[in-house]
């Protein structure tokens, strides 16, 4: 028997680990797969999660079984199709907590709901713990958490020695075509990597669209293209004549984020902080990064990555033109 | 001249009066029968497979308890907790929006008027958005939406009243202006919303859905819609008169301002109630009255009920599609238009000759 | 029934009527005559309360039925629908016409000989036919005071006759008070007990028909020779204009 | 100028006119008389091309100016704006009225004595004033054929006189062809060279005024005694209705 | 009667005719002067600090090259590549939308009509959304938006033409229906879009922005707007006549169908051009004509140019706010309404007495 408290403060008890779990939370399937080390108990997920994560890319290569899971739980991230979920006869449903209206219909028909809340760093760690309780694989959950904590602690030790006054500025830009869109207040803690975001304020506004004049005013040292920005590459910056007067473009310090940043709540996301620190401060901040990546993916998914796969994860092709990328990560 | 009327040929009068009553009666019961049929049909469909027999027994059980219910309790839950409240919500909302749309088109004498024109819809939308943004849920959200919706109609009335007189044109323009204002405010709120949780929540809520309706929601929306629809229906004859224009209405002895107010407030209640419980459901209140007018003419005595029932049938069918056609819930607002458009394009073409408006 | 003293009425910032006073007892019929734009419609609208006078006192006894000069409807109501609206005053805020109201309206349709129009769309009727429906609407309101703005303007002689007879009948048998405007003095000759000759916004003659209505006053009113004409072989007369009498010069 | 043979016209699915034939030479004036709803407006709308006849042949020589029976505008145009629109035919698709057009419109305003209306909002004019503006609009179109639907219905005698004189003047000095409908035979007596008496949708009398217009025909037309009345002391006559002649019974 | 006109008192005619010309002339030049002033002011403001003197020299340099430009080349880029095209776009778009709105309100005789009513806006919106969804950008997107925009007006016309006759009411309802259809289609596309990349792109594009306008964009939107606005202006007198209603217009000898078509197509071009280059910019085309009508009356000969210039000034000022008020670009659609609403609420109240519509 396992009993735990979910993010709503509700105590949930399972006599044995549930065998049919429907997940409405977008990143729950990958977390569940990582901790449970198998996909057998995942009975359903969102259409959206399936299409986005499991039909192409590294997950599709490593975890082909995920693509076969029923995807009728919800279309849009959180609004459940109650009858479709009932038809799966689930033992438990993982759902967001942000609105009682999206949980109440599920409980009304007698389903067991585990609530996850969003979006702080602690919430993200909790997903792993909660999944550990559900699957009865708390050991794996703690091992993964420890791997994260160790990496970040080492990184923190190095970042602490940097001169706080001279930290480089980094702007995450995911669009430069019809509009210039930057991440103003994202979820990634940039301080962990020893950089700062000139666009940050505490409005809570995640994305912000700016005009070119504003970009000139901020003039960041480094520009990062988020992993999800499929159509945007460093080359687009280097080839754009209007952007040529930007410092980061002049110095060719425009980088595409690696694939491990693709799924915001995935267990490997912490690698992003290390990668960014290396970009900003040098290879010392992520020593032997390729081996580390292979190790983490093996721990999480039991996958043995080929060298090409690691390169693909690091977006080495896209970043070939960027300053010192090859030197940094081979 | 009260007694002289007896001298009019009685037979003719009787058939005539009854004849008219019958004409209105023959379409309305047909529609009501259709509505009942669609409701019953709706209970039997859904992603969860249930036989028609099971559903019938489950329904009968409520009226006349069957000794040994042999069905799975989950079935009863599906029928009674998932499908029934949702069906009720669709019927009530479709009815309310169409009645209010028909009344407002008559009041403003403008075919482009819909329940959103008086600012309530986007006002209520903003109220709800604000609530989501602050993190309020459930009945707080509902209250906010409702409060802002009703507030905005008062704002519109205030804006358009110059020295005690309200012109219908200014009123309608004030409505447009206030709507635009709240829509912009909604957009601002969306820009500020957390894109992972709150933005999708706002977007989805605004798009309109009755997917998660429970009996309390149904009760709430009914509490807003039913009395308002009754008030509007009671004014059916006054709306006829108001549709001739304010001057004429005044000359005929109508208490113009009072009638305007009742209709505005009743429409505001309907819209605010709908938005509060189910988000913005557009289009129904604009188009259904035109279809109804094509069926029974411009007389609001027949138009209002026919409009209402037609709206109920329409929204119910649309919601049935929304919940069965794909695995995912498609927001109502989308299907309303997507399915409705081709259908109504044809209907409007066909029936336009007798479309009830004189201006074509 | 009607008592107005020193009425001053303005529209669009211009004073149209100044210091009009008039008095009409119950059961009498007043014909309002005057040139185009002198203010007949304005006066009538003031009497029925559509326009608030700027100054002066006005008291009207009883409910008022009204037929306007111009009329359009935005929806295609039937003629019957339109006439039924005349019953509004008797129905209250939440009422709708019932069997009795239909009977009353049909009764007046019958009296005007327009039963056929009942189901027809109001907007598809001819100008004169619409005017008859509007008169039926006003009659159906069964008010003590009936106000009609040029009720016969679009009517042929036969229908004018019908309407005039009906008005007289209503006055006689129901002691209704009637005010109507017209451009044909003959209408006044026929049924009006009183006439109001509006010469300008501030000058007018008001009095019993027999006294006030004569060729002289009318000629002054219309600024055109109006002569008495006697019907050949009948003991009746009319007043008719003598058009182009002095070979009017076209100064273009 | 106008040649119509065997016109059959329907509206809303009903046949209003059947087998109407008429012919009007250039420079002549046709008065159309008939009871309410007999089809005068329908005929006129057919002549100017607003309604397509169901069968029959119709040929009109030259451009047509038109004054409708009922008129409302949704925007507050000034009277001048409205009258200027009569110039449309002369301006082409992309034109706008210039100095000459203003002069022409002002000229007719002057002839009708309505210069004062120019800046006034059309909708704030009285019924008769609007009708004068509409007539000015039609005149300003300076067409060979002028068609007027009850042009004098809302006018006082003075203005009727002005309009009639103006029409006669236009016919005489510009050889304009004119068709107008009216409910007052006197208008026909005054200026029409021809009359069309529409007894029903399929029966009519058409001919020169002197022949066709007599008490007998008119009595048949209106189904009401119409008598010739001679002006006291003048060598003129008119036709006027004998209202309530036989003590018409109100059968209500 | 051509020669008789000479007999009319000449002096009176002259002052009268000139007088009217002058009345229209005195407001229009005032507005044009204001527009020029606002344009010049707009060049000097922005997030990037530039002194008025620098800007002046940079501008003068174009007309009369200064021998030794002493300014930073970045400054020149900011003024000439960032600010100028944007200002031009705002002026052209504001002008076009307002002219088309005024013409359509006249044509349909309905105060609630705006350039979106004929289906172009949401049609073009859908075209653009589709392009973004497929992954097309730049001129492909533009072409898609344009194509769908123009296509939808033809669809509307097709839908509303029964046996060769088009009633204005059916046309306007068909427009509403088609708009609803494409709006729903847009929503569907949004549901299908990747929420990290394409959804925000679609949302932002639809909300309207001229932030990234370059000279090619300006050229494109000008190519759509300028000829169309000229065509509409040339028809100014015909619009006056059409505003009396179709029957009357036909009796006055207007080629009704041709005029309708030209105005519809010209408005469609304007809207499609605007949406294609700058997304959906609502509200301007609806409200500005009312303000203009309050200023100069209903006569379209004066209304159209005044409406246009007023719209240009308004949109330019709004865009100035959009780009300077915060570090973020606020979508135009939002500020248009947010700032405009209180202003116009007051203006509409004040000026409504002479609002140009007869129906109040
Ligand atoms: N809303 C208004 N604003 C300004 N002036 C007005 C308004 N309504 C009427 N007038 C003016 O008031 C005067 C009187 O108009 P009214 O309609 O009362 O005339 P009338 O005697 O009924 O004329 P007719 O015989 O033509 O019907 C006219 O000169 C008219 O121009
Ligand atoms: N759109 C329509 N649909 C059906 N019937 C119509 C329509 N328009 C007119 N009618 C009918 O056609 C007949 C002739 O109408 P019309 O307007 O030509 O009469 P009129 O001779 O001008 O009458 P009036 O003297 O009253 O102006 C009337 O009976 C009328 O009801
Ligand atoms: Mg009058
Ligand atoms: Mg007629």
Question: What can you see in these coordinates?
Answer:
The complex is a heteropentamer, with one copy of chain A (330 residues), two copies of chain B (360 residues) and two copies of chain C (252 residues). With 330 residues, chain A is an alpha/beta fold. Chain A is built from 14 helices and eleven strands. In chain A, a hairpin with a 4-residue loop joins strand 7 (170-175) and strand 8 (180-183). The radius of gyration of chain A is 21 Å and the shape is globular. The termini of chain A are far apart. The model of chain A has no long low-confidence stretch (mean pLDDT 88). Chain B has helices spanning 10-44, 52-63, 73-108, 120-134, 138-160, 168-192, 198-207, 215-234, 236-242, 246-251, 256-278, 284-296, 300-324, 332-351, and strands at 161-162, 165-166. Chain B is globular and about 70 Å long. With 252 residues, chain C is α/β, with parallel strands linked by helices. Chain C has a single domain (2-211), classed as P-loop containing nucleotide triphosphate hydrolases (Rossmann fold, 3-Layer(aba) Sandwich). Chain C has nine helices and eleven strands. Chain C has helices at 40-47, 79-84, 88-91, 99-112, 127-140, 157-174, 185-191, 209-212, 215-222, and strands spanning 2-11, 14-24, 29-34, 55-60, 64-67, 145-148, 177-181, 194-198, 204-208, 226-231, 237-241. In chain C, the strands form three sheets. Chain C has a six-stranded mixed sheet, with helices on both faces. A three-stranded antiparallel sheet of chain C has the order 2-1-4, covered by helices on one side. In chain C, 58% of the residues are buried. Chains in contact: A-B, A-E, B-C, B-E, C-D, D-E. At the C-D interface, helix 4, helix 5, helix 6, strand 10 and strand 11 of C face helix 4, helix 5, helix 6, strand 10 and strand 11 of D. Strand 10 (226-231) of chain C pairs antiparallel with strand 10 of chain D. The complex binds adenosine-5'-triphosphate (2 copies) and magnesium ion (2 copies). One adenosine-5'-triphosphate (ATP) sits between chains D (11-12, 14, 16, 34, 36-42, 69) and C (124-129, 154). One adenosine-5'-triphosphate sits between chains C (11-12, 14, 16, 34, 36-42, 69) and D (124-129, 154). Chains B, E: InterPro entries: ABC_BtuC-like, ABC_transptr_permease_BtuC. Chains B, E: The chain crosses the membrane at residues 22-43, 87-108, 115-134, 140-159, 171-193, 213-235, 256-274, 303-322, 328-348. Chains B, E: Belongs to the binding-protein-dependent transport system permease family. FecCD subfamily.
């Amino acid at each position: 028997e396992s009993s735990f408290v979910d993010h709503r403060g509700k105590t949930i008890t399972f006599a044995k680990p549930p065998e049919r779990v429907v997940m409405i939370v977008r990143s729950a399937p990958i977390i569940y797969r990582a901790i449970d080390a198998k996909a057998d108990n995942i009975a359903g997920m969102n259409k959206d999660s399936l299409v986005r994560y499991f039909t192409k890319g590294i997950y599709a290569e490593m975890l082909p079984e995920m693509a076969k899971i029923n995807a009728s739980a919800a279309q849009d991230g959180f609004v459940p199709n109650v009858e479709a979920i009932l038809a799966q006869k689930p033992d438990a449903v993982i759902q967001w907590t942000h609105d009682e209206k999206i949980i109440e219909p599920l409980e009304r028909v007698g389903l067991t709901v585990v609530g996850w809340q969003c979006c702080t760093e602690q919430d993200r760690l909790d997903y792993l713990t909660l999944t550990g309780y559900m699957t009865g694989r708390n050991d794996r959950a703690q091992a993964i958490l420890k791997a994260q904590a160790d990496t970040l602690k080492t990184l923190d030790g190095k970042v602490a020695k940097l001169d706080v006054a001279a930290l480089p500025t980094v702007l995450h830009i995911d669009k430069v075509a019809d509009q210039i869109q930057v991440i103003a207040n994202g979820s990634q803690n940039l301080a962990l990597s020893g950089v700062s975001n000139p666009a940050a304020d505490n409005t809570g506004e995640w994305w912000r669209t700016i005009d070119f004049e504003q970009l000139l005013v901020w003039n960041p040292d480094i520009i990062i293209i988020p992993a999800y920005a499929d159509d945007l590459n460093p080359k687009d910056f280097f080839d754009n004549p209007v952007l040529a007067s930007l410092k980061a473009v002049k110095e060719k310090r425009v980088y595409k984020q690696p694939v491990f940043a693709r799924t915001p709540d995935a267990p490997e996301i912490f690698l992003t902080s290390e990668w960014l620190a290396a970009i900003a401060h040098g290879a010392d901040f992520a020593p032997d990064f390729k081996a580390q990546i292979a190790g983490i993916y093996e721990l999480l998914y039991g996958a043995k990555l080929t060298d090409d796969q690691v390169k693909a994860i690091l977006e080495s092709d896209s970043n070939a033109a960027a300053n010192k990328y090859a030197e940094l990560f081979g | 001249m009260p007694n002289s009327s007896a001298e009019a040929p009685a037979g003719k009068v009787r058939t005539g009066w009854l004849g008219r009553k019958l004409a209105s009666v023959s379409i309305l019961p047909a529609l009501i029968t259709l509505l009942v049929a669609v409701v019953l049909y709706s209970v039997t469909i859904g992603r969860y497979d249930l036989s028609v027999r099971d559903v019938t027994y489950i329904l009968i059980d409520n009226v006349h308890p069957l000794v040994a219910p042999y069905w799975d309790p989950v079935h009863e839950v599906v029928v009674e907790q998932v499908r029934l409240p949702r069906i009720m919500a669709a019927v009530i909302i479709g009815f309310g929006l169409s009645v209010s749309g028909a009344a407002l088109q008559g009041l403003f004498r403008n075919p482009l008027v819909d329940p959103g024109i008086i600012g309530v819809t986007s006002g209520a939308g903003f109220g709800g958005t604000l609530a989501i943004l602050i993190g309020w849920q459930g009945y707080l959200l509902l209250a906010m939406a409702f409060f802002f919706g009703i507030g905005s109609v008062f704002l519109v009335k205030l804006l358009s009243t110059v020295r005690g007189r309200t012109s219908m044109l200014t009123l309608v323009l004030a409505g447009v202006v206030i709507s635009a204002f709240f829509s912009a405010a909604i957009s601002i709120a969306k820009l500020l919303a957390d894109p992972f949780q709150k933005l999708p929540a706002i977007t989805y809520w605004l798009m309109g859905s009755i997917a998660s309706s429970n009996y309390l929601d149904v009760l709430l929306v009914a509490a807003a819609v039913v009395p308002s629809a009754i008030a509007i229906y009671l004014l059916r004859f006054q709306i006829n008169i108001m549709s001739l224009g304010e001057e004429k209405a005044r000359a005929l002895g109508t208490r113009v301002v009072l009638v305007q107010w009742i209709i505005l407030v009743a429409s505001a209640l309907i819209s605010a109630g709908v938005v509060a419980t189910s988000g913005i459901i557009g289009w129904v209140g604009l188009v259904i009255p035109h279809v109804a007018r094509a069926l029974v003419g411009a007389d609001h005595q027949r138009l209002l009920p026919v409009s209402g029932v037609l709206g109920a049938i329409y929204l119910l069918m649309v919601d049935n599609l929304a919940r069965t056609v794909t695995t995912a819930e498609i927001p109502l607002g989308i299907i309303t238009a997507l399915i409705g458009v081709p259908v109504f394009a044809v209907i409007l073409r066909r029936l336009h000759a007798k479309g009830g408006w004189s201006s074509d | 029934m009607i008592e107005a003293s020193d009425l001053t009425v303005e529209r669009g910032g211009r004073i149209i009527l100044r210091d009009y006073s008039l008095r009409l007892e119950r059961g009498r019929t007043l014909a309002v005559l005057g040139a185009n734009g002198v203010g007949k419609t304005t006066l009538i609208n003031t009497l029925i309360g559509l326009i608030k006078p700027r100054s002066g006192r006005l008291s009207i006894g009883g409910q008022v039925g009204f037929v306007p000069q111009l009329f359009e409807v935005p929806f295609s109501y039937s003629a019957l629908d339109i006439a039924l609206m005349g019953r509004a005053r008797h129905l209250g805020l939440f009422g709708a016409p019932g069997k009795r109201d239909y009977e009353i309206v049909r009764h007046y349709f019958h009296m005007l000989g327009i039963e056929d129009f009942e189901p027809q769309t109001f907007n598809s009727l001819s100008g004169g036919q619409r005017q008859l429906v509007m008169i039926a609407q006003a009659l159906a309101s069964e008010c003590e005071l009936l106000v009609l703005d040029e009720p016969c303007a679009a009517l042929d002689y036969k229908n004018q006759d019908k309407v005039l007879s009906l008005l007289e009948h209503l006055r006689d048998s129901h002691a209704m008070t009637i005010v109507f405007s017209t451009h044909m003095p003959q209408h006044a000759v026929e049924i009006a007990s009183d006439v109001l000759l509006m010469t300008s916004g501030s000058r007018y003659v008001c009095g019993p028909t027999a006294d006030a209505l004569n060729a002289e006053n009318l000629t002054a009113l219309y600024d055109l020779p109006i002569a008495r004409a006697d019907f050949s072989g009948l003991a009746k007369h009319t007043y008719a204009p003598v058009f182009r009498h002095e070979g009017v010069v076209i100064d273009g």
